[in-house]
Amino acid sequence: MRSLPLADPGVPDARGPFHYLWWIVRGQPVPLFSGIGFAILWWLAQALVPAAVGRAVDSLTVQDAGGLVRWSFVVLGLGCFGAFTGVMRHRSAVYNWLCAAYRTVQVTVRQATRLGATLPKRLSTGEVISVGNSDIAHIGNALEILSRGVGALVAIGAVTVIMLNTSARLGLMVLIGVPLMAAAVAPLLRPLHRRQHAQRELQGDLATRAGDIVAGLRVLRGIGGEQVFTERYREESQRVRAAGVRVASVDAALEGAQLLLPGILIAFVTWQGAHLAMDGAITVGQLVSFYGYALFLVGPLRTLTESADKITKGHVSARRVVRVLTLEPEITGGTALGPREPGDLADAASGVVVRPGRLTALACAMPEDAIAVADRLGRYAEGDVTYGGVPLKDMAPAEVRERVLVAGNDARLFSGRLRDELDPKGTATDDEVADALHAAAAEDIVEALPDGLESRVAEAGREFSGGQQQRLRLVRALLADPEVLILVEPTSAVDAHTEARIADRLAKARAGRTTLVCATSPLMLDRADHVVFVKDGTVLAEGSHRTLMATEPAYAATVTRGED
């Protein structure tokens, strides 16, 4: 097994789809030209077989046993050479497909990471899925077909020259007939690509709809809207099916034309060749060769049509990839270095200041205010925020992400080994993992699994309940161990007993580290070193939980939800 040399895909040329495809080509010249070379040799080996067979037939006609044996070995040699070059051509084609496809995967994933929260705002889920599924395959197909297409052109040229030297009339028939067939098939490509594009758009919309339904299934069932959205999904799926049928009808017409038109050419060339043989203008062996040439040309002609189809699809897919690559993140950064030591994390808009080394709780009268403050503090939204006196907007985004971690309830669990999911960097020791599980009161989750931390997590962690997922996300955040950890409602989905245990253990787990917990739960607020109360977007009061309960009615109403 040979590894693909894709450690660094480079900087893509995103000026347009053609520039992007040319960048892909320039990135793999050796395997691409090797594939083209093997494809040319493979096609030529097949193209020369009819000539050798014709010579063998002529040797048999004149009873030349030595010539028959000689030309039979030539046919055998061409067959063996064709088999070898065919294997090498296929290996090169697969390698080129993988390089082009996975190079596209690398640059789009890197761009998705760079865009962060900007990506779902600019592109729908279906569009992203379409790029990740069909578009990378079409780009790989465009590179794969390139070698066969060039080889097919060379083979057609070689056969035409041979036929012109043997019989100018038959050679001209092929020379004129091949472009005419290509011109006859070409009008079918535009409606095919138009319908394929429309089908992909509908598939993207359907994937988005399916993702929304799955994400909100519990809510839909709760409000009785499941049947309504099911009907909408059914209607959209039928539109996708109808679009697929329309694509298939044009595709079937194209396939039929690719068989019918070369068949007509073969029949006409064979008929003319038979008349020439009867008139003595060509030998019987040459007639057999002409029939073999006409039959052989079906393959290169279909390859040329396939090349036009796949390269056009690759161009369309490259346009979609370029669209992703040209998006710019809403939040950018500078190059300034952060403070050497942890300092105050301050949000000027709200007046919230998170002191270093303390467990601070943020209670907001409106939940959206807490989210807004957390987004600004984590540099997920624009704001006048400083860390140790250094503006976050001037710091490099990578450094901000390394030092300040915002853990919300929209974070996902991915499929794979549970330990890898909890510790993506793979740097935590067994004791550290155990401590994090204990702090998040998540030991029972692991103990209930058949293989413990070695168990496989299903997609999106669907085998876990909402409260279990929340606790596992907390474990992952604790193991990341950032300088500043911002937790947004980390216990909203767990019962009071579990929440009390987490509240007691969280302070110990983050001792000496800066932690901000956005919550209105009395259990969490009572364990905090300091509580900041925000109302109408600004700080209204600060102090301990018990002090604020006694002195600030608005805080008490928020925490108790208006209960006496």
List keywords for this structure.
single chain; 564 residues; alpha/beta; ABC transporter transmembrane region fold; Rossmann fold; 2 domains; 6-stranded mixed beta sheet; 4-stranded antiparallel beta sheet; 20 helices; 12 strands; 8% strand; elongated
Detailed description of the structure:
- The protein has about 575 residues and is of the alpha/beta class.
- It folds into two domains: about 15-325, ABC transporter transmembrane region fold (Up-down Bundle); about 345-410 and about 480-560, Rossmann fold, CATH 3.40.50.
- It is about 65% helix and about 10% strand.
- The protein has a six-stranded mixed β-sheet, with helices on both faces. It has a four-stranded antiparallel β-sheet with strand order 2-1-4-5, with helices on one face.
- The mean pLDDT is about 85.
- InterPro entries: ABC1_TM_dom, ABC1_TM_sf, ABC_transporter-like_ATP-bd, ABC_transporter-like_CS, P-loop_NTPase, Type_1_exporter.
- This is ABC-type multidrug transport system fused ATPase/permease subunit.
